[in-house]
Structures are given as structure tokens and as C-alpha cells.
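explain this.
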Amino acid sequence: MARTADQKNKEGCWGSCTSYLKSAKFLLYLGHSLSTWGDRMWHFAVSVFLVELYGNSLLLTAVYGLVVAGSVLLLGAIIGDWVDKNSRLKVAQTSLIVQNASVIVCGIILMVVFLFKSQLVLMYHGWLLTVCYILVITIANIANLASTAMSITIQRDWIIVVAGDDRSRLADMNATVRRIDQLTNILAPMAVGQIMTFGSPVIGCGFIAGWNLLSMCVEYLLLWKVYQKTPALAFKAGQKVEEQELKELNVQKDMETYLNNKDKPAEVSQLMSEKSLAMAEVQKEPGCCDHITEPFRTFRDGWVAYYNQSVFLAGMALAFLYMTVLGFDCITTGYAYTQGLSGSMLSFLMGASAITGILGTVAFTWLRRKCGLVRTGFISGMAQLVSLFLCVVSVFMPGSPLDLTVSPFADISSRFFEREPMPTISPHVVTDAYSTTGMPSLINGSTSAGSDTEMLSESVPLISVSLLFAGVIAARVGLWSFDLTVTQLIQENVIESERGVISGVQNSMNYLLDLLHFIMVILAPNPESFGILVLISVLFVALGHVMYFRYAYKSLGKQIFNCCSPHPKTVASESQHSDSSSA
């Protein structure tokens, strides 16, 4: 009897594991992991490839970043509208194929350029090489737009349908997707970086192209499996294509009725004829001007719809968090490099940042169960602001290069008006800096990155930069919990027929603020001004959370301060309140 019970327990455990591995939820996770891994490898590698191709200059990388940000900013609403107008499977499959095919073509072009660059420079006075650069940036931008469409349709639509009406399940799935993003953000660049370091750029291009080809086939199959296992994905409420087909069907029925009533009295025939003609005029083909102005109307209608959403302030709050230098991007890591932090220390800090980001996803699911969704965003915002207070303190601590007597525009004016010769950058310096920090750095015009780091570490106290990164790392808990809160608020409160366009506009807002933060750095690029950038970043984050507090107060009133109520009725009433406000 004991053996039989043990066998039943084992079979039950094995059966539950098997059913989970075959479930639509797990298949969605697996497909997202493959897609995100390929995206992170490509985004990391393409910047390095462009730097190496253009003589260790950041010009092509800067142009690529500007094109990508500008494209999503202008086309975000149009991409979202396209997602709304078409069936879910068609959108997902088309985005998948365009994205991976574009990366494969880019990889092949880059391999050709790396192998035959010396010959291409001599052909047509170098214009053929310039054409190759333009093709790479253009096709890579198309891949990014397709990736945006894929992200909207999977993370803002499919995941809601797979979760069903269970909001707790939706929160868990959102948190799991963010954990996958956090892990791939660290592991994927490390993997492709090792391949490029111990191999060559040509091998790196070939590996990424081959990965995307294999991943495209597997992801295509996984999407089809998820679609089959979730019948609700086949139905899209308020789909405009279905409305158009229904109108055309009504016209056909009226015409058939008219033909059947030809032998009846003239008044009936005349009435039916007038109705049919009126419907035919309504359904006439749009003219050339309509086709030309349609993208502009879609752009306008998307932004108007975004402004009219009940979660508009919450979405704006999330976008304002992108206007910051307090993240592990090339700007902050480059500043840390000038303050004497080594590459190994930066790698350790990035790993710690990923861990705290994952802790933020865990905190989100726990806080949501205890306090409700809206209060979770309020608590997460307060946690982020308290952590960023360390960054504010770091600006005024020993070792901070803040110098208000130095003009933020001194570096720009010296370059454009004094026309001083630019220091020569050794290729080894650029390579070493990229392999450790993610951006090339030149400190005091030296030719040895290692000696610069040692010299700075001896002369510059590390109290300021230590407090800065302590605040940045600690703030990731509140940041990712807040990000998940706003994401789920948009998922729950935006009607199904507008999910795509609202998500597209939200992406555009995020890119707009991100673009502004790069412009801010361009205007004040010297280390002496970085403290001012830190203060401006904290100000924008605070403004974002003020917007969210305004939204939360409108949704819950003074009940927002009753945090972590142990009674589940409070959470249920909050959900009902949120539903009523969205209606």
C-alpha cells in the first residue's frame, strides 16, 4: 500500500510537471526567453560592430541610436494601431519573421564588410561602403520596429488572454517576464562578448545570424502551439477588420434583397435601391489623399486616445523615469570609469543590479497581494525615491567632481570655437573600455586604460561614487516593482480594441524621455557637470511619482494611505474601484 501511494505521488508530481511544461504559459515564457536573448545579443553587438567599422568612432553608433529612438517616437502609435487592426497570430508571426530576417540580413552584410572592407573603401570612392553602413542602420531599425510590435502583441495582449480573468495570475506572469528580461540583460551580452573576444567580429556576426535563424523557427512553432492551446486568442473584441467585413456583408445582403424584390411594387424597389446606393457610397474606396493622410490621422488619434485614458497619469509617471542618468547604461558606467572603478567592479555592480531588479519583481507580487495594485505603485515609488536620496547625497560627498564654476557647455564651446585638435584614441583603449564598461573612454588623453584607472583610484576618494551606485542599485527594487504596477494598470484598464495603440504611444513616450536624457548629457558632457545631471534625474523621477500619486489619489482617495490592509476586502474593493474608473 505504501509503495502504491509513493508511486501515485511520483506520478502526480511528474504529471503536474509535464502538464506545466506543455501549458500555454510555459510555452509563452520559453518563446519570450528566446526572443529576448536574441534581442539583447543583437543590441549589444551592433553598437560594437559599428564602432569597429568606423575607425573606433561613436558616430555610427550615435546615428543608429538616434534613428531607432526617432522611429519608435514617430511610429509607435501607427505600429500599435496595426497590431489592433489585425489578427493576433498574423501580427505575431509577421513581426517575428521581419525581426529575425532583418537581423540575419544585417549579420550577412556586416560579415561582408568586415571581410572585404579594404576593397570596399576603394570601390566608387568609398561610396559603396557608405551604402553598406546606411543599409545596416536602416535594416537594424526595421528589426527594432518589428521587435516593438512583437513586444506589444505578446506582453500587452497575448499575456492578458492567456492569464484569463485571473488578475493574480496576470501579475505573476508579468513578474516572470520581467525576471527573464533581467537575466537576459546580463547573460546575453556576456555570451556574445566572449564569442567576439576569443573569436572575431566575423564569427560574432555569423553566430548571431545563425542564432536568429534557429530561434525564428522555434519561436514560430511555439507561437502556433500557444495559439492552439488558447482558443480565446482567435477572438479579438472590437477588431476593425471584422467591422469592415460585416459592413461589406450588409451591403451584399441589401443588394440581394433588392434583386429579389425586382418584381414587387416600384416603391419597395426604389426604397431598397436608395438604401443600397447609400451603403455603397459609405463603403467606397478611399482616395489617394485618404491613404496619404491616414498615418497622420492614426498618429493623432493614438495620442488623443492615450491622453483620454484613465491611466494617463500613471503612464506619464513611468515615462518620466526614463529621463535619468541613474541606470546601468553607457553614460553612468563611463562616469564610473572616470572615477576609478575597474571593469571587474563594474561587472559586479551590474550583477548586483540584476539581483535587486529580480527582487523588485518578487516584491511586486507580494505587495500586490497584501496592498492591492494601486497602493503597490505608491509604495514602490516611495522606495525608489528614498533609495535615490543616496545619489543626491553622493553629489556633495568627498570625491565628487562637481564644480559649479565649470560651465556645462565648456567642452562643447572648446570643440566648436577653439578648434583644439582631438587627442588620438588608441584602438587598444577603445577595445579595453568596451569590453569592461560598454563604452569607450579616454581619460586625460592617456593611451593606457589600466594606468588611468590605477592613477584615479589612488587620487580620487570612492565615497561619492560608492554612494551613487548604492542608491542606483537599491532603487532598482522600487523601479521594477513600479514598472510592473503601471504595466498591469494599463493591461487592466485599456479596452481590448485599443491595447496596441495605447502601448505604442506609451513606448513613444518612453523613447521621447530617453532621448531627452541623452540630449541632456550631450549639453553637459564633462564629469564636473554629472552631479547636476544626477539632481535633474532625481527631480524628474520625483515628478513622475507625483503624477502617479495624483492618479492613485483620484482612484482611491484617502484610502491610499491605508497601506497593507490585512483584509482581502480592501484589495477587492480597490480592484472594483479601478474597474469603475476605467469604465
Q: What stands out?
A: Residues 240-249, 415-458, 566-583 have pLDDT under 50 and may be disordered. The longest helix spans residues 127-163. The chain has two domains: 21-235, 293-404+461-561. The two ends are 57 Å apart (CA to CA).
